[in-house]
Each structure stands twice: as C-alpha cells, then as structure tokens.
Amino acid sequence: MTNRIKRIYCGLLFASMVLLNNVWGRQQSELVLGTYTYASNNRLSSLEALAGYLHREAGLTVTVKSYPNVPALLNAIRADSVQLAVLNTVGYLLQQRHDAGRMIPLLNLNLGMDTATQYGGCIIAARSTDILQLPQLRNAARYTLALVAPSSTSGNLVPRLLLNSIGITDAASRFDTYYAGTHQQAVADVLSGKAQLAGCGCAEVDTAKLRHDFDRKAVVVASFNDIPLGPLAYHHRLPTAVVQKVQQALMRIHEKDTESFRTFCSGWTEFRKAKSFQPVADRAYDPFRHMFGNNESLWQLIQ
Prior knowledge:
Elements: H1 3-26, E1 30-36, H2 44-58, E2 61-67, H3 70-78, E3 84-86, H4 89-99, E4 103-110, E5 121-126, E6 144-147, H5 153-165, H6 171-174, E7 176-179, H7 183-192, E8 197-201, H8 202-211, H9 214-217, E9 218-224, E10 232-235, H10 240-250, H11 253-256, H12 258-265, E11 276-279, H13 286-290, H14 296-302
Helix pairs in contact: 2-10, 2-12
C-alpha cells in the first residue's frame, strides 16, 4: 500500500469515527425510546409519560416511537435507530439470539410479592372436545388451534412451549393452526366454536370468565405463570452517565410521579399491577430459554 493510499485510508477511518462519535454524542441528549404496537394500541401515551418524566427528573430529551410490530422494532434496533426500547419477552429473546449485546437489559417491572403475575400464558379447549389436561392433546383429533401472533410471548411462545413439553414439537403437524391477531379474539374463537383450542394470555381468560360465560364453554388445560417480564433495554453504545441517569430516575418514578408511572404501566396488560421498576440482567431470562431444550425448529416458528 502506497503512502498516499495509506493517508486516504487513515483519513476515511478517522472521519467515520468522528461521525460516529458525533451521532452518539447527540444521542446523549436526544434519545429515541421505542416500543411495538399491539392491535390498535400504539402505547405512545405510555411512552410519552415516561419521556416527560425523564426530561423533568434527569434532564434528558426523549423522543418516543411506536413501531408496527415486534419485528419492526427489532429492525430499528439493528439499524441503531433506537437507544432505549421497551421489549416483550419473546422480542428480547429473539434480539439477543440474533444480535447479542446490541441492547442491554436495564430494568423491568416488579409486580410485588402480593400480586400474582398477569404475564402468564395458557392453552384452552372447548368443552366439546372433552380435553381437560395437556397430555390428552398427544392423541387428540386434528383440532383447530388459534394462536395470537408470531411475536406474542403468552399467546404463541408459551403455548408452543407447553405443547413441546408433551412431545408436540410443531403445533402445525398436529393441529390446524392460525393467528387470531389478539388474545381476545383467540378466546372468542373457542367460545364461538370457530376453533377448538387456543393459546392466549391468562389475563384474557380471567376477563372471559367474568364477561363471556367462559367456564360453561371452555376449560384451561395448561398454563405457565412465571414468564419474566420483558425489559426496558438500552443500546450498548449509550454513555454510562446517561444509562445511570435513566436507571436512577426510573427506580424512583413510582414514588416521585405516580401518575406517570401508572400511565406507563397502563399500556401493557401484564404491567398494570406493577409496583415499581427493578434492575434486571440477561441471566434472568435463562430459565425461560432453557424451556426450548434442543428444539431449534421452535425458535424458527416464533421469528
């Protein structure tokens, strides 16, 4: 390499480093906080409550953005367009699986010892099937199974993990599966007879028991109620001082600005009874990862 080429190469390298530092320098005071839309709920009002609090409490300017779905949010993370993200559990697991270390979990929500988690997933069956327990599905007829959406933790991942635990590694090999779009619709499809089975969030079953005569028409055959809540994560290039400001402010939000905290939590069914934010590390999700076992095809089905 000639001296002239070397000088050009070094100059380009230096310029790119300066540009990168300038971009991330600006992002110290101009942060993008992103999340994903669920059905018609874009959760922007929830993010705006958090952004306003961070500005008042920590002096941070935060822009909020809701992406159409979890895959769109993950694409924005890969493009370095988001510095802070509120992820669901399956979104975080997929992000770490394909792009480990880009986002680092900072906090998730503490539901308190006196509050049963609302982040549980289950499989329900129409009473007409005579299915009462999960193992009966091994030899069941080829029923129709409604799931919520590919990126749903409680309405897709958990039901598939429950089926995987009894040897049904691919739901579509045993049942006619489809995505209903929402937890409410998945339950409604079983109650109306469109589907005989459904995977959904446990909270939606509780609602159906109160409003839609669930117990006469359907039964919960299996559930998993210890799903770790998805994290608020930060981009690994975000300066430590900024990360500390975010963490310190949000650890106090339930005491200093209860209204903003409750507005934030109202955007997610599973967050609504939260008591406070709490620190979280990646290892908190390891027990859930281990439920996959060696089922590589299951990962493929949820991404």
